[in-house]
Amino acid sequence: MSDLLWQKPGVTVDARIQKFLAGDDVVLDREFFLHDITASKAHAEGLQRIGILSADELSGLQRELDVLAADFGSGAFVLDERYEDCHSAIESRLTERLGDAGRKIHTGRSRNDQILVATRLWLKEKLARVAQLSSQVAAVALDRAQAEKHLPIPGYTHIQRAVVSSAGMWWAGWAEAFIDNATRAADTHRLVDANPLGTAAGYGVNLPLDRDHATDLLGFARLQVSPTYAQLSRGKFEMAALEALGGATLDLRRLAWDLSLFTSAEFGFVALPAQYTTGSSIMPNKRNPDVIELPVV
Description:
Elements: H1 15-22, H2 25-29, H3 33-49, H4 55-74, H5 86-98, H6 100-104, H7 111-147, E1 152-157, E2 160-166, H8 167-192, E3 194-195, H9 211-218, E4 222-223, H10 227-232, H11 236-262, H12 290-293
Parallel strand pairs: 3-4
Antiparallel strand pairs: 1-2
């Protein structure tokens, strides 16, 4: 394993303890790696603005971070057990390539605010995607609701026919559900859109870092002002994102359940194209709607 960022001189950490504490970190950190690189570039620019890095050192760091990102994307660089985590991997690579300039990049930051900012950038990306997909589903459902507003189907309770309804009404219900899911994802995106970089381990740093400039560079809507709250918000923002995703997933599961029922011979309301179904190795007559059954599980 590469040198640990927190390694004490003359002390060797027991390998079993280290594996227990951080053995899976690099696997999980692959999701955050590119975002950590993005934040490192912004932090390096901040260090140059206050004279910690020279212009040449900043240029070298930016270049090597871009190369590292490209190597990670192509598979030429693999984040594996050689490193404790993505932060160690980045700094190890920079130090190997640039010497003291690579070591300087950790000035004024902690792994605490590093993982916070990488996680926030990742959450923003994923929440934007959830909002986009939910809006697309809602738009399709609205189109189908309009097109099939006069198509009668039974309205069911307890999987028993209860009233005369319409396919349009069924589609309209899903349209509104996914409009809500898009709204909730967007609201959660606004919650997490706060920059924690520069808060270090919860008490800030004694350097005049321009956190507002870093906020602009990283595309955050606002600054998370209190260093203490930045650390106290651990888990809180992630929980909000999980709840937004959970609501969309719940509706997707219910939609898939309805569709799986409606494709059965007993209902016969929906027929999937053959290319969207699978077959049976023993019953050649089967067309299995696996694609809408799996989300139900």
